[in-house]
Amino acid sequence: TQLLEQSPQFLSIQEGENLTVYCNSSSVFSSLQWYRQEPGEGPVLLVTVVTGGEVKKLKRLTFQFGDARKDSSLHITAAQPGDTGLYLCAGYNSGYGGATNKLIFGTGTLLAVQP
Amino acid sequence: ETGVTQTPRHLVMGMTNKKSLKCEQHLGHNAMYWYKQSAKKPLELMFVYSLEERVENNSVPSRFSPECPNSSHLFLHLHTLQPEDSALYLCASSRALGRAFQETQYFGPGTRLLVL
């Protein structure tokens, strides 16, 4: 069974602080996605990383895919209250060989940014 | 607004009731999914449909019965549920199945289900 463990589970910080969320697995993924889910809504895709070692930036968010494609991190610079939400990593399993490639979701990190 | 709508947004039902959840996507996608999101657990994939054909049934109890009459609509029929089935049920769609590895799934807002 492929699992994606996220840490920390909960994070409460002040506006302007920096933070990093980690997504770790013992399994290799062909790609990894990060989603943000706000209360009362479904997850919304932020980014997809594909290549080991890849770094992508989305304004104040920086995403990195581990060299071995087993882990990823999300770094937020100068967090704002609008960044509040549940952050989910999700990996497409590689070499599954079935009719579908399943998207395996991580355990989630709940972020609260206080003004 | 992601182009995926779900109704109802909230549902309270007794264990002997029968109800249905509805999902509609306005994106022209060919694949649709049902997920279950419970507290303290990762999103769990329940069912996958591609071009109205079920291609995945992820060991879901038979008290959950999906239906996909066309590529734009997906239903989840519920009967004799248990309190532990209380959760947020999310529908998603994608252009095609994730055969490669970069298919983006677009999620609806979910139906918050409470089983009493």
Question: How does this model look, in words?
Answer:
The complex is a heterodimer of chains A (115) and B (116). Chain A has strands spanning 5-7, 10-14, 19-24, 29-37, 44-49, 55-58, 61-65, 71-76, 85-93, 103-105, 109-114. Chain A has 115 residues and is mainly beta. In chain A, strands 2, 4, 5, 9, 10 and 11 form a six-stranded mixed β-sheet that branches. A five-stranded antiparallel β-sheet of chain A has the order 1-3-8-7-6, with no helix packed on it. Chain A starts with a strand and ends with a strand. The relative contact order of chain A is 0.33. The model of chain B has no long low-confidence stretch (mean pLDDT 91). Chain B contains no helices and eleven strands. The interface between A and B is medium-sized, with 26 and 25 residues.
Average predicted confidence as pLDDT of chain A: 91
The overall pLDDT of chain B, averaged over residues, is: 91
- Main sheet record of chain B: 7 strands, mixed
- Estimate the strand proportion of chain B: over 45%
Total of DSSP H or I helical runs spanning 4+ residues of chain A: 0
Strand content of chain A: over 45%
Short description:
Chain A has 115 residues and is mainly beta. Chain A contains no helices and eleven strands. Chain A starts with a strand and ends with a strand.
Strand and helix layout:
The complex is a heterodimer of chains A (115) and B (116).
Chain A: E1 5-7, E2 10-14, E3 19-24, E4 29-37, E5 44-49, E6 55-58, E7 61-65, E8 71-76, E9 85-93, E10 103-105, E11 109-114
Parallel strand pairs in A: 2-11
Antiparallel strand pairs in A: 1-3, 3-8, 4-5, 4-9, 6-7, 7-8, 9-10, 9-11
Chain B: E1 4-7, E2 10-13, E3 18-25, E4 31-37, E5 44-50, E6 53-57, E7 64-70, E8 73-79, E9 87-94, E10 106-107, E11 111-115
Parallel strand pairs in B: 2-11
Antiparallel strand pairs in B: 1-3, 3-8, 4-5, 4-9, 5-6, 7-8, 9-10, 9-11
